[in-house]
């Protein structure tokens, strides 16, 4: 059990290092950079959700005055590398092909070519001159169609990972996994009340205010520098290097300030395109997505189809659960369905359960992380079923959850035992709150649900420098996400017992991946955590 600790600085509200720049408009975001000799890039995107590329003719675009480079999928090498990306490992071949199509387009908005020119208008005009001959194919736009026996197949070589022995491909089901414990049939036989429901959710985009943007320069020595809006500069460095065929040590990534991400600004979309265009043109290339491109060609969260069956005794004890989760991965495998399966009933102590989870490819953009990826859809389904159990038993929904809540030492559905968790006190606090029993007026309702998420323990580092005046500087590789700079400064001040005064202060300075401090970071290094 963790020991309670009193904090002096953590939990206070100091002036943010970047506050003045952000409220006055001086902060530099992804689209704000402008480098000498810079070109502008534009992308030609597919009008089809599913089609075979018969031919691409870029000659008219290349003859357009002001055009300096044109690239297609053939300008990118094949890669089979894998990379840790957020909460999962991803196949960089899929990311590369999602970034720019090779032989097929697999979603409406799939990039097929990119142009760099002296102005954006010229680049856009030239991109529209590229002639692409398509052979349209039937698109697969939902789970039911994707898993039908006669469904069009997106990837002819795809086989189901984790499928029962004897299953054959090709298929649109990329993977299947199971979580189980006890005897689920015996559990349901013991139940006095059983509810079974099906729930569907649509793909939802993160909706960050700032579109994707970057500027890249590839020098005569083959080394590249990238300035971009990203949640993961190290991912941008490693993914871009693998996709364009460079050593990661030869790619320097400088994260700008970020205008929202919510998990959606980890994957690379423009950066490798800009690097290869710059390498061809021998000039820096800037690329900025329109809002239309963000919605058509970047990763939302999965749509889902979830069937839940819960059984409870008359006293309110949940005794059995069965769930089937089907998540849309988009055009390439890798939905967060595994995390959804792990989180679905994680809040509750259910002795008998069986959960199966399917990753399904469809003709939509490849999904990306979105705030506890995979968990909200599963929670929506399970929590709705728990509410139905409460209605059937005519008991308070919070009381039902308290009776079945997992506590420290209980085993999670996915294996390990829980450490200290706060579900029980949270439920008690909610039950005591006046809002829970307050009268409802016309057209008013009251909802309650429990959610669960775990965090991935990936690598990170920080350097703390003590200065002659007693202040400290924190140097990390993190972009500022939701106030991480001031949070890091507060933690260092707490550990070093640095007083909150003009002379004894801590400041947090994020740095770029494998690069010197970015301009935004350098500016924040000069500011104090406290006035």
Strand content: 15-25%
Tell me the number of strands.
20
CATH fold annotation of the domain at 173-204 and 301-431: Aldehyde Oxidoreductase, domain 4
Major sheet attributes:
7 strands, mixed
Q: Based on CA inertia axes, which overall geometry fits?
A: globular
Average pLDDT, rounded to a whole number, is 91
Name the CATH class of the domain at 173-204 and 301-431. Answer: Alpha Beta
Query: For the CA atoms, what is the radius of gyration?
Result: 26 Å
Strands of the widest sheet, in order across it, are 3-7-1-14-11-12-13
Helix content: 25-40%
Structural class given helices, strands, pairing? Answer: alpha+beta
Output the CATH homologous superfamily of the domain at 173-204 and 301-431.
Aldehyde oxidase/xanthine dehydrogenase, molybdopterin binding domain
The number of helices is: 16
Low-confidence stretches: 500-505, 510-531
């Amino acid at each position: 059990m963790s020991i309670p600790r009193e904090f002096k600085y953590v939990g206070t509200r100091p002036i943010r290092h970047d506050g003045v720049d952000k409220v006055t408009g001086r902060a530099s975001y992804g689209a704000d950079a402008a480098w000498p000799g810079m070109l502008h890039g534009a992308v030609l995107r597919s009008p089809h959700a599913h089609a075979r590329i018969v031919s691409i003719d870029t000659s008219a675009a290349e003859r357009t005055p002001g055009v300096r480079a044109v690239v297609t999928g053939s300008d990118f090498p094949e890669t089979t590398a894998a990379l840790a990306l957020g909460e999962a490992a991803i196949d960089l071949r899929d990311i590369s092909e999602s970034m720019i199509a090779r032989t097929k387009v697999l979603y409406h908005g799939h990039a097929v070519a990119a142009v760099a020119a002296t102005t954006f208008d010229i680049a856009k005009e030239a991109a529209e001159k590229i002639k692409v001959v398509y052979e349209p194919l039937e698109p697969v736009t939902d789970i039911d169609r994707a898993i039908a026996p006669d469904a069009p197949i997106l990837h002819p070589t795809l086989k189901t990972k984790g499928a029962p022995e004897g299953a054959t491909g090709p298929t649109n089901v990329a993977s299947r996994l199971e979580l189980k414990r006890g005897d689920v049939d015996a559990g349901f036989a013991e139940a006095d009340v059983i509810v079974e429901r099906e729930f569907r959710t649509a793909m939802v985009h993160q909706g960050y205010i700032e579109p994707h943007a970057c500027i890249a320069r590839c020098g005569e020595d083959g080394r590249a520098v990238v300035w971009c809006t990203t949640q993961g500069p190290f991912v941008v460095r490693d993914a871009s290097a693998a996709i364009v065929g460079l050593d990661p040590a030869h790619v320097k990534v400088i994260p700008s300030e970020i205008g929202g991400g919510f998990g959606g600004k980890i994957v690379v979309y423009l950066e490798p395109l800009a690097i290869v265009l710059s390498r061809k043109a021998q000039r820096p290339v800037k690329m900025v997505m329109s809002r239309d491109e963000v919605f058509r060609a970047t990763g939302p969260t999965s749509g889902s189809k979830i069937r839940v069956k819960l059984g409870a005794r008359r006293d309110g004890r949940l005794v059995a659960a069965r769930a089937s989760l089907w998540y849309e991965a988009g055009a390439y495998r890798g939905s967060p369905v595994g995390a959804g399966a792990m989180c679905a009933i994680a809040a509750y102590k259910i002795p008998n359960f069986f959960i199966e989870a399917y990753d399904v490819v469809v003709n939509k953009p490849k999904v990306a992380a979105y705030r506890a990826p995979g968990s909200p859809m599963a929670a929506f389904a399970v929590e709705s079923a728990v509410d139905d159990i409460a209605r059937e038993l005519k008991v308070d929904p919070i009381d039902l959850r308290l009776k079945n809540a997992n506590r420290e030492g209980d085993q999670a559905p996915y294996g390990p035992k829980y450490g200290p968790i706060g579900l029980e006190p949270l439920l008690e606090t909610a039950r005591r709150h006046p809002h829970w029993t307050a009268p409802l007026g016309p057209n008013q309702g009251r909802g309650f649900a429990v959610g669960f998420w775990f965090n991935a323990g990936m690598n990170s580092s920080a350097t703390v420098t003590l200065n002659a005046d007693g202040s400290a500087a924190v140097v990390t590789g993190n972009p500022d996400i939701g106030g991480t700079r001031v949070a890091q400064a507060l933690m260092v001040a707490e550990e070093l017992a640095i007083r909150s005064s003009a002379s004894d202060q801590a400041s947090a300075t994020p740095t770029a991946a494998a690069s010197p401090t970015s301009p935004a970071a350098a500016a924040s290094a000069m500011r104090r955590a406290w006035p």
